[in-house]
Amino acid sequence: MSQPSMNWTAIDADPRFQALHRKKTLFLWGLMIFSTVYYFLLPIGAAYFQDLFKVKVWGVVNVGILFALSEFIVAWTIAFVYSKKANAEFDSMAQEIINDAHKMGA
Amino acid sequence: MTKSYRNFALFAIALLACTSAYAAGGAVADEFKWMTFAVFGVIIAITMGITVWASKTTHSTSEFYAAGRSVSGIQNGWAIAGDYLSAASFLGIAGLISLYGYDGFMYSVGWLVAYITVLLVIAEPCRNIGKYTMGDILAFRNDPKKTKTVAALSTITVSTFYLTAQMVGGGVLIKTLIGIDYEISVIGVGILMLTYVVFGGMKATTWVQITKAVLLVIASIILVILVWSPYGFSLPAYLQAVVGDSKVQGQVAKLLGSAAATMTPEELGQRFLEPGLFLKNPIDQISLGMALVLGTAGMPHILMRFFTVPTAQAARTSVIWAMGIIGGFYVLTLFLGTGAAMLVGPAKIATVDAGGNMAGPLLAQYLGGGADSMLGNFFLAFVAAVAFATIVAVVAGLVLAAASAMAHDIYVGVIRGDRATPREQVVAARISSIIVGVIAITVGILAKGQNVAHLVALAFAVAASSNLPAVFLTLYWKKCNTTGIIMGMIVGSLTAIGLVMISPNMTYPQAVTKAANKVLDGEPAMPAKDAVPAQERSSFLCELFALNGCKLAAPAKPAEPAKEAKPGTREKLVMLKAKLDAATDEADKKKVQEEIGKVQKVQDKAEADLKKMDGQTTSLMGLDKPFFLLKNPGLLSIPLGFLMVILGSLFTRDKRAETMWDELYVRQNTGINAEAATAH
Questions:
Q1: Which of B218, B297, B333, B629 is the Cys-Cys partner for B122 at CB 3.0 to 4.6 Å?
Q2: Predicted model pTM
């Protein structure tokens, strides 16, 4: 399959591509940093905040178990939030650029 | 019936017949073994059917390596789950929870969180840029021959470590479950997996992985419903029953030792739901967490899965589905593990397998009605068959990843300079698969009885320290170039491997000998000890390395009363035999005999250890004791891998890497000119 040659520098410089790049970078790094910090709170909490983890809140269910379960909820929520945003926003922004790509820098 | 169908059917029957002939012992009782083999037979038949079907559309390279990029997002999500949930996570984590409670569950979290990295920064760009391998991604803007060589070496290293762990673990598992000889299991698994890969390529591998994931999820859901429903699906009511169980309380008392003396049974039970029974070193935990979170995204067999879908959007969908399935499965293991602890009991689980791997299978047997019931053994057979499917599915994915690096990167890319004909490429792919498969079988047999637990952690650590920094910085950092990639990958992987070689993961003969002698001869009486004040560590480096003059932080210890001498197994056996002679009642005799059997087993193991270590005083690396104190090297090797890519890139210039940046960055974000799906 022969692929049409593109002026990649022109696409890269296009304000729409720059807007997509800025939006994506901010959003992805925000989520990434949040999820990393939230994940490492678990081993740190289990090691250094055992008294807190041992507090019973729901019958025998303690803070530690709820926190570990919340890790799953948070991971799923991040996946959901990202896919919503990407499906609704990033994909259509990219599609616009794709549609005009062969004209850019011509 | 076509000829190929008949050949596959005959082959499957032959394989089954020769395996059943060698089965003796194991968790499944002999009179119920036919049932296990029947379920195994059904699974082998299904996967062979898949292979025959897939082989009809597996002709081109894109079909062999990437299933023609025709796998849908949802299918790929199931396949990723099937590729990722190895026997270690399926049986191992349920086992850890059944023995250590909370810590086992906490351990499972990192395996899911890892997919956030995959989702946010790896899956879509890789789909947009890559073709078949990690080497393709790196070669996009860097020197193709050099980066493909390093990428292929790293891929083969990571896959071989993981593959060896899977082969050895699988062989032991099948032996423990149904008593098939270790060598026969390894060869059987190897031949089956090679059949899928060589004839059906990625398409067969994908569908074998999907089948396995579906079976695994069904089995887990059924077991959890049976465990949880008596408590009306209430979490507090269920966990209340777990902590109130005397077997669970006994296990905690055993783990805590003398500290348990002052605790009430309720406190002991509750302790099962609190951290600290298994994972003692938080720095090691963080190091492992780093390797998981960054290593998963650098695992070649996981990366490869993203080349099988038609678009970046489908890659996104597949990670979302994979996260749902994998996370859901780990939540279920909380119930499988605690259920096994409550119903079967940690003591019984540990006698069948010290690592707890039999928790899930034993729970299944119990829920079906116990060891003597038909249904109980059917449940056990089903779980054993799922474990078997798990091993072949994971191994097939790994072999395909290693073979693609060998054939596509090294042979086609480097040796033939990308001028191989399509036919030649497919032949190279098939031959490479056979080579990797034969190596896996050979290494699996040679590594019998070896300590391979560290190989999984090592595979993740190398992937996180070598593959991920290279892929990540190639995709996101403009200045990244060939020299940086090569330096980072070599230094990252060698550091990870080197640190593990001097870590507590290795076998240290003096420690093993000492422990074995303690088992055999017992412990002498100890005089009372005075209280010890808390100690501060001398420096952070001391947490990582066994340096001279290091003191580790330790909490204050209360004074301990004098301890009586503990008898060793030799002494115990003499006492028990005297007891047996004195016993008159048949029931008593039987009980003592059982006791003797247990002690004898422990003694045999200690004696075997002594024999194995005879004459050795140092580890493979010539050390008396570990020099690097963590089991997971990620904490040091991952930053070092990143640093080397950055330094190497900053100190050299690479015209091609710079000029290709715009194209790479636009393409990875938009998917323009991405490899298209082949129509069928």
A1: B297
A2: 0.90
